[in-house]
Design goal:
It is built from 15 helices and two strands. Helix 5 packs parallel to helix 7 and helix 13 runs antiparallel to helix 14. The protein starts with a helix and ends with a helix. The mean pLDDT is 88. Strand 1 and strand 2 form a beta hairpin.
Length: 426
């Protein structure tokens, strides 16, 4: 029994790869486990998990649906998916940058909401033409998010207020203060949401004619990918990126090395907030055109799972944010096609977040099992060598014994010959 368990653990360590590959294999392992748990939940409801997961892909425009309404096809669905994917990339990068410095920006949702609201009020409701409004929307989002992030960084640096507490408080403040202003000054009496922003200020070209189709073209998707590559370069190739990672590893060691810890904490949170602000404007003035009062965007919390899955690596975030967006975007179609509640996708995302949080433990267990396997192999090799040495010693002893017997026989024969010779002479 113990041997079988050991073999399974060694097999798991082998499947999850070498230590250099574990940043990829362990998150993939977490996703597979989460999908298996989701499949069990779907089976308990009497549904086929394969069809349910296929519906998720169909709802995201990756697989074709059976039927489409007018002006729609798989291309329009995929463009809508890209529109939802864009703010997820920015939000996940925001969490990842903070994590690199040892900070946990759980207030991405509040920063998104604040940036989206202020950009809507000052730019979205203005008569500015598109060539001015769209860049200003991005600029306002960056500045508002940066200001909020820097404020949280200052609280951390000057007063040692835990960033988790301060960001949660900012979430609540933003949620209810902005809801008050929307309901008082900017409410749409029909939808009970904020008034829609002007088409000129939106970062998505809505219902753009393309042949017989009407496509939503997300303008910020290219910017999101470029920003991800830029963040990767900053973190890996610049002095600022090195200082961020150094502070994240050890504040005491960084301070001893002369790195300004407080300055880097504030700058990191400012950068994280700027990315959250870009996520907010691409969400509220791109994917949506209005704001629902008293509701924080769930994307701000889903981005935590993406950042953990991607190990705070911008390139990994591009891939894992794509997967998480499939779950959130395709859940509506899964609900209508399979009859499953769309919250199933949120359950799977939550399970992914749970397993992602266990990445360090999984890595520890895998490396421990690998070390034990190496140790066992070394012990076995030593045992084989000892056995071979013992066999060799036995053989040498036997050879020595045979040699002594042969010499004794020769000596006896020589004595016998001497005696015979003496007898003949006598």
């Amino acid at each position: 029994m113990h041997k079988n368990k050991g073999k399974k653990q060694h097999l798991l360590a082998l499947l999850l790869g070498q230590e250099k590959m574990q940043s990829v294999t362990i998150p993939l392992f977490a996703i597979v486990l989460s999908l298996l748990f989701g499949a069990v939940i779907i089976l308990l409801q009497g549904k086929n998990p394969l069809f349910a997961y296929m519906n998720l892909l169909q709802g995201s425009g990756i697989l074709p649906k059976e039927t489409y309404p007018g002006y729609k096809n798989i291309l329009t669905d995929f463009c809508s998916f890209l529109n939802a994917w864009t703010p997820m990339i920015f939000a996940s990068l925001s969490v990842a940058v903070a994590l690199r410095a040892g900070l946990f920006n759980i207030g991405v949702a509040g920063q998104m909401l604040t940036a989206g609201f202020i950009a809507s009020v000052f730019i979205g409701y203005s008569p500015l033409p598109a060539f001015l409004a769209k860049p200003l929307v991005v600029l306002v989002g960056i500045l508002v998010g940066m200001a909020l992030g820097a404020f949280i960084g200052v609280l951390k640096h000057r007063f040692n207020i835990n960033e988790v507490v301060s960001t949660i408080m900012v979430n609540y403040i933003a949620q209810y203060v902005i809801a008050f202003f929307i309901n008082t000054y900017f409410v749409n009496p029909t939808s009970r949401q904020s008034r829609p922003v002007s088409p000129a200020s939106r970062l998505t070209l809505m219902d753009t004619p393309f042949g017989a189709l009407k496509i939503d073209i997300p303008l910020a998707i290219v910017l999101a990918v470029v920003v991800a590559l830029l963040i990767q370069f900053v973190l890996d190739k610049t002095c600022f990126g090195f200082e961020i990672k150094s502070v994240g590893f050890s504040k005491k060691a960084s301070r001893y090395a002369g790195i300004p810890v407080g300055k880097n904490l504030v700058l990191t949170m400012a950068l994280s907030g700027a990315l959250a602000g870009m996520s907010g404007v691409s969400y509220y003035l791109g994917y949506f055109g209005s704001i629902q009062p008293r509701v924080l965007p769930g994307m701000g919390f889903d981005s935590i799972a993406v950042a953990l899955l991607g190990n705070s690596n911008p390139i990994g975030i591009l891939f894992f944010s794509f997967f998480i967006t499939i779950l959130s975007k395709g859940s509506t179609y899964m609900n209508s096609a399979s009859g499953l509640e769309s919250e199933i996708a949120s359950v799977i995302t939550g399970i992914i977040l749970l397993f992602s949080a266990c990445n360090a433990y999984i890595r520890y267990k895998v490396n421990k099992e690998r070390a034990e396997a190496v140790r066992e192999e070394a012990v076995q090799a030593e045992a084989v060598q000892a056995e071979a040495a013992q066999v060799e010693a036995v053989q040498e002893e036997k050879q020595e014994e045979d040699k002594r017997k042969e010499e004794k026989q020769k000596e006896d024969k020589r004595k016998e010959e001497v005696q015979q010779k003496e007898g003949r002479e006598a």
